[in-house]
Automatic annotation (TrEMBL):
Pfam hit, one: Condensin2nSMC
Natural source organism: Scylla paramamosain (Mud crab)
Classification via SUPFAM superfamilies: ARM repeat
GO biological process: mitotic sister chromatid segregation
Protein name: Condensin-2 complex subunit G2
Biased composition (Acidic residues): 601-610, 672-688
GO terms under cellular component: condensin complex; nucleus
Lineage: Eukaryota, Metazoa, Ecdysozoa, Arthropoda, Crustacea
Amino acid sequence: MTTTSMTAKQQLLEAVEGHQPAPFLSLIQGHEKKRKTVDLEEVVLELSRGEVKHVWGCLQAWADEQVTAFVAEHHNQNEEIAASGTNNKDQESTNKYNEKLLEGIVKFAHIYISTFKEGTTFIPGKMLEMTLLLHEMLAAFNGSVKLAIVSLCEQWWLQELEAQDLLVTNVLSHLLEATTRNGAQKKEVLRLWKLHNALATIDLDSPNNKKFVELLTYCISCPIFLNCDEGIKWLVGLFSWPSLIPLLHKEVRLAIPECTRAHSAKYGEVYFKAWKASQGDTKKTIEEECIQDLMYTAIHANPMSSRPSANLHHLLHHIHSYKKHRAVSSLITELYQPILWRSFTVANGYVRMNATGLLCDAFPLNDYNLSQEEQSNLLERQYHTLKTLLLDPCHLVRITAVKGVFNILCKYWIMVPNEVIKAIFKTLLTVLVYDVTTAEVRLEVIKGLTLLLGSADAVPFLIQVLPRLGDVFDDANHKVREAFAKLLLKVKESQALKYWDIVSVPHLLHRLELDNPKVAQLVSRLLLSSFHPFTKTDEELLQRSLSLLEENRMAARRFYQYAGSMISLPNVVHFMLLLWLCLSNHIALHRQQQQQQQQQSDDEENEDSEDSGKNDSGRQRKQQSVRGGRRCERDSLVSTSNKENAAGAGGTVSSKTSILSKDFETSKVLAEGDEEKEEEESEDEEVSPLDNLDVLCGILDTVGILWATNAHRLAKPENNKYLEALRNKLSRNFQHFFKYFKGNADASRTLLYIASFLPKSLVPTLVGHCMSQLKAIQVEQVVSGSDTSYKSFVNALCNWKHGDSLLELLSEWLEEGFKSGLITGNKERRRSRRQVRFCETSTPKPQVALHILCHILEHPINRVSTLQRHRAQLLDIIQDLTKVKDLITERLHRNEELSDLCCDTFLCECWSLYLRLVVVCHHSPSKEPPGKQSIGRETEDLIFHSPACVLECLEWASSTLVPYLGEKNGGKRKLQDTEEAFTLITTLLRSLVTSSTHLLIIGAANIPFVYMLNDFVKILIETDSNGMFWEEGLCLAQESYEFLWVYESSEEEKDETIITGSRLANICISSMADYFKHHDQLPQECELSNTLVHLLMSLGQRSRQDQSYVLEHLMSCVVEHLCWRIEKNNGVDKEAKCIQHLGGFVALLVGTFQKQTKLSIVVMDAFSHFLSTANHDMTSLLAACHLLEVLLQDSGKISRYSLKQTVVAANSVMSAVALPEKESEEADQESPLSIYKDSAKTANKILDNLKESLSIV
C-alpha cells in the first residue's frame, strides 16, 4: 500500500466534511483496484462510533443533495416548458447531479456493512435513512447507480441487518426483471435465489403487488430458470403460495407447446418437488388442479401435432419415474383412476393411443392404500387391458401398445406371470408381426424383440421364440427388414443364440444379393466374422472366401462392397494379394496340366509313328522338335510365373495357404511324371472350388470391388506403399490372365476394370485392345442399354491418359453421322485433320459416340481429367456439334428422318450433348503448372463464353423451332408428320431451357441473360397450350429468382414488363389453370408438385413479400377455376368431400401445400389476404367458401387455426355484401339477381357451418 491507514482516514474525513467529491471518489477507486492503494475496510474499522455518526451525517446530507438534483434534472427533462425559447439562468440548479458521487456513496455504504461481524453491527440513523430513500427510488435510477443500490440492499438482507424487510421489495422486482428478460444469465438467477426468503415479507394478495405477481408468474416460462438448479428451487418455492399455483399452472400450459423436450422434463421435476415439499390444502391443490389436469390434457391432446402431446408425456414421464416410492405410486394410481380407464373405451383412436402410452409408462399402477386382493385385481386389470390394446382396431393404438408392452417386459420380466407372457407373445408372433394394415406395427415388434434381448431374464424364452421368425426377413417393407437385420446383429452380440438358427446362411445371402444398400450393409456386418474372420489363418480365410463365392457370387460382390470399408487397409491389401496369388497359381497349374496332356499325346503319337514309313517318321521328328521347343518355353514361363507370384505375395502368404501349397505340390508331381500317383491322389481329393469358372470370375470381382471401395484410402500419401505393392504384383500376370479368360466376356471386363487402376506403363498392350473393342461394339446393344461394357474401356483409357485418342475417334464418328444427314452437292465441307491419323477403317457409330461422351461427362474422375487435359479437343467437338442446328432445320422441312445414322433420336441426343458441353466448358482453363510456359494465343483460344453461345441458340430456336410449335396449336401446318415433329421440337426446346437454367445454377450468366431467358420461356409457355414446359418454367423461375437475388441490386426499380422469377412462376400457374379447363390430367408424368414446393420454399427463404405475391396469384387462380366449375355445373358440388373431387387443377395446387405444414400456413395467410384485399364478385366468394368447406373435411396438415383465420376473413367480406331487400314477382329465377341471391345464400350457409365447426363466435 502506497499510503498509510491514518492518512487515508484523514483524507476520508476531510473529503466528507468539506464535501469534496474528487478526493472521496479517489479513495473509492483506490479501494476497487486489483492492487488496492487504499483499504477502506481498515479505515472504517479505525473510525470511532462518533466519527462514524459524523461521517454518515455528512454523507446523508451529500446524498440528499444529489437525490434532489437528480429529481430536479429528471423533472426538467420530462417536462415541456412553454417558453422553450427563453434562457432563464435562474432556473438552473446551483448543484448539478453527479452520478459518480452518488454511486461512490452507495459503494462506501456497501464497504461499511461488509466490515460487520457477528454482534458488532452499528448502523447510524442517517445511513438507514439514506438507504431507505435510495431503495424507494430504485426504479427511478438507472445504470451503475441502480446496480450499486441493488448490491447494497442484497448485502443488507443477507447480513440480516436492521430494517431488512424494508429494503428488499424493490430489489426483488429488479432481479425478477433482470432474470426474465432475453439474454439473462444464470448468475442473476443465483442472486435471486439467495433472496428467496424475502418473499415472505411481501403480501402477494395485495392489489398493489399485481405487477410483482406477474413477474413471479412469468418466471416459470423462462428457460433460464429451468437450466439451473437454483432456478428449479426458486420455481418450486413459488408453488408454496396457494394464490400463485393457478397462475403458475396456467403459464406452464401455455409454455408446453413451444418448449423443448428437456424443458418439459424440468417442468415435471418442478411439479414433483413442489408436491413433495407441500402439505395440506396446497398439496391437494397441486395434485388435483395441476398434475391431474396435465394427465387429462395429455390423454385428450392431439398426437399428430407432435410437440404439445410429446412434451406432456415427457413431463408426466418424469413424475412416473418416482413410482418406486409408495406414496408416489399411490398418488399416480389415484389421479389416473377417474380418467384413464374410461379413455380405453372411447371412439376416438387418438385418445386411446394417448391413454395407452401413459398406462405403459406408469405401469405398474399400484395403490398401497388398497388391500392385497384389490391390488392383485388392479394388476390383473392392467394385464388384461394391455392384451386388449394389442388387438385394437386403430393401428396407432397397436403401435403404442407394442412399444409399451416390450418396455414393460424388458423392465418387469420376472414380475409378469408366465401365462401373461405367453398370451402376449402369441398375439405378437402370430398376429402383429404379420400385420397387413401397416408396416409400422411389424416394425415395432422387431424393434421390441431387439430391445428385449438386452434383458438377461428374457433371453431363455427368446431362444425358443426367435427361430420361428425367419420368414419375417422377407417382409415387403425395407424398414422391417432393416430392423430384422439389426435384431440378428443383437443376437450375434448376445451370443445366446446363433443367428443362423433364425435365418439360414443361404437365406441371408439371398437377401444380401437383392436387398437395398442399408439392409445389405447390415447383413455384411453380420457375416463379416464368418466369411472374413480377422483371427484366422490365410488358409482358413481363403477357404471361406471361396465358399462364399461358390455359394452365391452376386451376394459375395455386395458383401465385399460393404466389407471393404470395415476392414483395415493393410488387411484389405493382403487379402487382395492372397486372392490374386491363388488365382495366378491355379492358372499356372492349369497350364502345366495342359502341357502334360500335350506331352502324353505326343508320346502316343511317337509310338504309333514307329510302324509308319520313313517319310512319315522324318516329318514326325520335325514336329516333335517344334513341340519340344514350345514345351520348353511353356515350362520356363510357368516356373518364372510361380517364382514371381511366390516372391510377390511373400513367404507368409504362400506358407499359410494350403490351396496354394496344394497347387505347387501337384505341379511338382506333374513335372516328375508320376502319373499313377497323380491318378490316385485325384481320386481321393475333393473337387476344388477353383475348378468352377464362376468362382474364378468371382475372385476377379472381389479384387476389383475391394480396390474400388478403398481407392480413396489408397490415394492418400501415407498409403502409397500399399498402392505400389498392388500395382507391381497385379500387373505381372495380366497377359496370362487375359489368355486364360479369353472366351469369358465377364471375366475379361473385370480384368479390364482392374487394369484401369494401373498405370499404362504396366499394361501397355491393353490400350490398343480397348480401342479395338470400342470400334467393334454393337450399336443396338449400346442404344438399348443392354451393353454397358464400353464404360470400362472408356474409364481405362481416361485413366491411362489416352483421352485424346478416344476423343478423336468420337469426333470422327460424329462427323460421319452429320455427313449422312446433310444434303450432298450443295455445300463444301472441310475434311477433319484428325482423320489422317486413322489408318484402319471402321464403321462409324455416331450414337455410340454420344453415349461415350455422356458417360465421360457423368463420371466425376473422367470429366475432371478430360476438361484439364483435352479442353481444346472438347471445344472442337462443340464447334462440330453446331452443325446439328442445320440438320434440325433440314429435318423440319422433311416428312421423314434424314437417314438411318442421322435419325431424330440422334438429333435430340446431339442437341442435348451440345448444350451440356457448352455449360461444362464455360470455365476458363486451369493455369499451367510452374515450369511450363503457354503461348498467349493458345490460352485465349481455350477460353469459352457459354452464355453467348446459349444466346445464339435461343435466337435460333426463336426463329426456327418456336414457329413450328405454334403451328401445332393452330394455324397453317407445313408438316405432314405433325406428331413426330412436335415431339422433336418439344424435346429440343426443353433441353435448351434446362441447360440454360444450369448456367444460372453455376453462376455463369449475367442479369440481361436472365431476363432474356425468362422472356423466351414466357413465349414458350404462352405459345404451347399443352403444358410441355411447366416444369422447366418453374425450375427456371426458382433459379432466376435466386440468381437475381444475389447479383441484382434491390434498390433498382423493375419495370412491369420485365419478367422476373416470381412473374414467370405466375405465368406458369395461369397456364396450368387454362389447361385444366379442357383436360382432366397432366399432359405428361412430371414432378410438378415437388418443383412448385421447392419454388415456394425458396421464395419464402428470401422474401416473404415475393412469396405472398406468388401465393396470392395461386389462390386467385384456384378461386377462378372453382368459379368456372360452379358456372359449368350450375352450382357447387355438394358431394365433394376431398380436394381431389374439386378437379385436377385444384387438386394439384392445393394438394401441394396441403402436405406441407410450414407451407400450408403461409398459403392460408395469403388466401386470407387475397380475400381481404381483392375485389370479388359473389361467385368468387362462393367458390372461396366452398374451398374452405372441403378443406375442413380434408385439411391434411393445415391447422385449425389457419382455417379459422381464413374463415374469419371470408366472413368479414361476406358481412359487407349488401343484398336487395325485395325481388319483383316477375323476376326470372335465372336472372342475374336471382343467381346473385342464391349464391349469397349458399355462401352464408357454408360460412355458418364452418363457424359452428370451428367454434368461431
